[in-house]
């Protein structure tokens, strides 16, 4: 092979040009494909997170709706209210950092407020139960304890419903 041969240089330059064009087109195409795949993966991850949280909130909504405005039931079931309400998925996602994928800050704020309201109901119900167990037999809960618990249930029920509506809106928006 002759280094000064014209066909050698012609082949060399055509291969070099093909390589440069391949790199110039291939790298941006690969980056674009990677970005599309990452966006789809993130969208699926966010959808999974908020759908599971919606399911958990929907279960809580049923429990809260059954208690809302029903003082005799609340007093009778005070010891079981915490067992009826669920916050496990919220704990897992918030403690595990999964909520970083949810870019809708209004939704994340609503979720945090909703779970705070649910935990408030759980805490007040537990305290009401403890009071009823430690109080004198036959004496009802003090009016302030009943009022605070009923207001917490009413408020949490309202907030849960609003958050579920926001989740539904978010899911509809994502499918556009």
Q: Care to give the gist of this entry?
A:
The chain has 176 residues and is mostly helical. It has helices at 6-67, 71-77, 81-84, 88-96, 105-134, 143-174.
Can you offer a commentary on this structure?
The protein is an all-alpha fold and 176 residues long. The chain has one domain (46-174). 82% of the residues lie in helices and 0% in strands. It contains six helices and no strands. The mean pLDDT is 86.
Q: Give the count of helical stretches.
A: 6
Element order, helices and strands? HHHHHH
Report the radius of gyration as a whole number of Å.
Answer: 29 Å
How many strands?
0
Helix-strand category: mainly alpha
Q: What is the overall silhouette?
A: rod-shaped
Helix residue percentage: over 70%
Q: Kindly, what is the distance between the CA atoms of the first and last residues, rounded to a whole number of angstroms?
A: 61 Å
Profile the largest sheet: none
Q: What is the count of structural domains?
A: 1
The portion of residues forming beta strands comes to under 5%
Poorly predicted runs of 5 or more residues: none
> Mean pLDDT score, rounded?
86
């Amino acid at each position: 092979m002759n280094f000064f041969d014209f066909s050698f240089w012609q082949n060399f330059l055509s291969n070099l040009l093909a390589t440069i064009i391949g790199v110039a087109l291939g790298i941006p195409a690969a980056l674009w494909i990677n970005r599309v795949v990452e966006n789809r993966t993130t969208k699926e991850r966010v959808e999974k997170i908020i759908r599971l949280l919606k399911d958990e909130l929907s279960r809580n909504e049923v429990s809260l709706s059954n208690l809302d405005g029903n003082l005799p039931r609340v007093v009778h079931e005070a010891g079981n209210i915490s067992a009826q309400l669920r916050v496990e998925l919220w704990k897992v996602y918030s403690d595990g950092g999964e909520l970083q994928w949810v870019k809708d800050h209004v939704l994340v704020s609503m979720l945090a407020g909703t779970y705070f309201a649910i935990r408030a109901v759980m805490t007040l119900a537990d305290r009401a139960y403890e009071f009823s167990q430690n109080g004198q037999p036959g004496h009802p809960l003090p009016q302030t304890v009943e009022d605070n618990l009923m207001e917490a249930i009413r408020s949490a029920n309202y907030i849960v419903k609003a958050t579920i509506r926001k989740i539904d809106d978010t899911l509809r928006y994502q499918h556009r």
